[in-house]
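Run log // design_07
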């Protein structure tokens, strides 16, 4: 069988125009939910916004494209949380369209509509539309790369060969996990009838373009002591090997939530049953189940976060859509429809949480949403205080505070341009420890500093540098049913 040879598929119950309207409705609804949501920015979201205020070709822990996107959206639409997160629902809408087009080229239009509908209702799409993260633009360029690869296989297109290299390069500027697509492409070329779908010189062209677009970030890392690579190595902590089945169980169970309970089972069943029987399915599986399998091993050896497997699911949606369309099995069609319904239920629960800012009726001892409340209220209080005192610097000792307060204080017109990070670590653990580490020798005698911390004091080695050091304010906010966020604001004058 020729690669990606289309078969006739039965009629899908919704026409193309209806599917497009559903996708547009979902996108607009998600944007509206973001607009009225009381939940504030997370640590990472606020950090990405912070990066967007000083555009570079790289940052301590991530490539730069997430900051570029936020910079554009906030420049056009202002600094509200909606503007920071705006690209998330938009990109997920575009991913649905891209998967539709890709699936059409492989399995036909009816399957394409199904693929778009599946993606738009996935829990990962519902949750991913309400937060800004590097995963969403990564999935966008990963999906574009799948489309380009499909066109190369079907049409031997030189234009799509060039586009694939560009998509891979931009994907790398989004998240370094894009390198796995490059690795898969090379392995795929080596094990499959090589020159039949991609000549060697075209493979070289793709890799060259990928490197060309990645080069600014690579150079930035070189100029900054390879801080990102060191950060990745530090987080990997390869010396600690767990060999723990519990981590495997947690990771696999998390995939039932990420991709949906029944849709994940159907994906595994489809790949398991037909991997070696259909050429086009084996190719798609190569860019999906391989990722899940590899991360399962990673979880066994150490740990693997639920979101690390998201790049497996664009191809997985195409696999499910094509399988259901081609097999014409009413039982399987019913099961996948039930799966989509369950995914919608999960997505509605996510919408409810986003809309109301709580997780009721679920009662948890430690409310995870407490970290998304109260920073704007406290920032107004702290902004007034800082603007009255006019210190030469404001200092924090936690990333969770410096990111959010930087965003909300700037939003409330605090006068300072940047905050410093109080730490004595030798190896920086975050962006602020590396670029904004507080060094007392950088300041002059009699200069006034403000220090904001959760602790009731600071280390003696810092305290000895001050002529005076006094508690200025205790800021207290009830951020959940049982907990308060308590911050101590100190004013110090240097010797």
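design_07 sequence
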């Amino acid at each position: 069988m020729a690669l990606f040879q289309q078969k006739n598929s039965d009629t899908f119950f919704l026409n193309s125009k209806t599917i497009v309207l559903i996708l547009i409705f979902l996108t607009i609804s998600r944007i509206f939910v973001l607009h009225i949501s009381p939940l504030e920015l997370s640590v990472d979201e606020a950090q990405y916004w912070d990066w967007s205020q000083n555009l570079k070709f790289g940052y301590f822990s991530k490539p730069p494209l997430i900051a570029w996107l936020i910079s554009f959206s906030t420049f056009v639409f202002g600094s509200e949380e909606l503007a920071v997160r705006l690209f998330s629902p938009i990109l997920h809408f575009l991913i649905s369209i891209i998967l539709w087009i890709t699936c059409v080229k492989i399995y036909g239009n009816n399957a394409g509509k199904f693929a778009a509908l599946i993606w738009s209702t996935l829990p990962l799409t519902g949750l991913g539309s309400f937060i800004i993260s590097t995963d969403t633009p990564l999935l966008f360029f990963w999906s574009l790369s799948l489309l380009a690869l499909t066109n190369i296989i079907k049409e031997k297109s030189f234009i799509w060969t060039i586009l694939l290299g560009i998509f891979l390069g931009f994907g790398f500027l989004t998240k370094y996990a894009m390198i796995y697509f490059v690795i898969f492409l090379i392995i795929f070329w080596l094990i499959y009838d090589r020159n039949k779908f991609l000549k060697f010189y075209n493979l070289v062209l793709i890799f060259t373009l990928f490197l060309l677009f990645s080069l600014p970030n690579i150079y930035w890392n070189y100029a900054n002591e390879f801080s990102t690579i060191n950060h990745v190595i530090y987080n990997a902590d390869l010396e600690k090997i767990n060999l723990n089945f519990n981590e495997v169980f947690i990771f696999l169970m998390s995939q039932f939530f990420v991709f949906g309970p029944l849709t994940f089972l159907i994906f595994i069943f489809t790949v398991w049953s037909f991997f070696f029987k259909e050429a086009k399915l084996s190719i798609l599986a190569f860019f999906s189940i391989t990722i899940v399998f590899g991360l399962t091993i990673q979880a066994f050896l150490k740990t693997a976060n639920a979101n690390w497997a998201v790049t497996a699911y664009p191809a997985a949606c195409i696999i499910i859509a094509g399988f259901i369309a081609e097999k014409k099995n009413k039982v399987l069609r019913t099961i996948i429809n039930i799966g989509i319904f369950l995914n919608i239920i999960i997505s509605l629960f996510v919408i409810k949480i986003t809309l109301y800012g709580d997780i009721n009726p679920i009662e948890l001892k430690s409310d995870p949403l407490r970290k998304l409340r109260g920073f704007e209220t406290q920032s107004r209080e702290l902004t007034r205080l800082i603007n009255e005192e006019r210190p030469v610097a404001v200092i924090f000792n936690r990333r969770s505070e410096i990111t959010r307060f930087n965003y909300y204080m700037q939003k409330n017109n605090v006068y300072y341009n940047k905050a410093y990070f109080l730490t004595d670590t030798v190896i920086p653990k975050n962006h602020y420890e590396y670029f904004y580490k507080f060094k007392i020798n950088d300041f002059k005698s009699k200069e006034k500093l403000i220090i904001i911390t959760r602790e009731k004091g600071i280390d003696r080695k810092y305290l000895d540098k001050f002529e005076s050091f006094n508690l200025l304010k205790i800021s207290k906010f009830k951020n959940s049913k049982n907990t308060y966020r308590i911050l101590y604001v100190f004013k110090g004058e240097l010797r």
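The first helix runs from residue 16 to 36.
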